[in-house]
Design goal:
Shape: globular
Structural class: alpha+beta
Low-confidence stretches: none
Number of domains: 2
Strand content: 35-45%
Length: 448
Amino acid sequence: MLTIEQAQDRAAAIVDRARAAGADAADAVFAADTALDVSVRLGALEDVGRSESEELGLRVFAGNRSASVSTSDFSEHALAALVERAVAMAREAPEDAWAGLAPKDRLMRGAPPQLDLDDGGEASPESLREAALAAEDAARAVAGVTNSEGGSASASRSIWALATSHGFAAAYAATGYGLSASVLAGEGGSMVRDYAYHSTRRRRDLDSAEEIGTRAGERTVARANPGRVESGALPVVFDPRVGSSLLGHFIGAIGGQAITRRTSFLLDALGTAVFAPGVRIEDDPHRPRGLRSRPFDGEGLPVSPFAIVQDGALESWLLDSASARQLGLEPTGHAARGVGGAPGVSTSNLHMAAGHLSVQALMADIPRGIYVTELIGMGVNGVTGDYSRGAAGFLIENGEITTPVAEFTIAGNLKDMFRELTPANDLEYRYATNVPTIRIDGMTVASG
């Protein structure tokens, strides 16, 4: 794999070639990745996989016309053909009044912030196999576990570089480690499954294999022999593992493309109360060792912690340069892009701030409700906000989590759900998107 400096130079060099070939402007992304993963099942090695990739993406502009091309062939002949083809395509592309690079005066200057994302990525297949076996063994050791879907461990290292003809060029590296176990309880058609996993940037930050495996086994056994729940309007409490999906629907509705295309259920919500008073949602790209931390965005703009919602009110759309131009606003540093195509938008380390109630206090006044631990299907309409998903979890009876239930749906409209949302105080930073336990009153629960 190239060094960070070599990756940066490779992206900058192809931009220079594009300008020399007649492009009015250009940017380029270089991405390299190496990954190793091991899976086991029932105490035996099941699979070992290793992958390596290097790709270069080039976007060129001829006035307001643009084209994107990519390659994994870095020979001189291939790169020359790539540049020639990209410039020719751009000259024939349709005009886009909003297309273009990020504003030159907004680009990040100086050295990128150091976010502690890279520990070198050293991991042997043997060490990953031992970790996967230990996680599965711990899960299978939990009384009531009857079968296993296996354990897995992975390690990866990637380098990402961006260069633009406005003079920006930077790169960074990041490592990633994961460990998981998935097991079953029950027999025949009544079997249930659950899992546990942990992902980190540095290997030493991973939970122990025994912790992960035990958590998977205990979660699975707790779900054995689920009952049914009656239909009706009930309070629904979301476990943090699944509650984070609510933020995903929210972010999809405030992205620049959804707003410019007028395809969002929050189209007229900027500056208004979207959530209940006190709710705060923040994006933090500078969190050390964060799973989505980054020193700059996909167009070379600086990034910083950003409050999207304060005291329940929506403070900003998430905008790349093109959508910002179309809306007459400024880009927000949320541009994201792959090797091919134009930028879109995404968050980095997203979280909903903890509330003031403990989980016990959050549920204390619920005579009968649902605690959701699994969501199934994608029945969410981003234009209307209508929400309907299959679910499984547990009954809440007189403020206590009791028996497992399955095969039901929960439904509502995201506008109403957000306004009725109450967060508990148990926020933990374990994933790329983190929320505390969340309660939403008045959802429609329907037995399957």
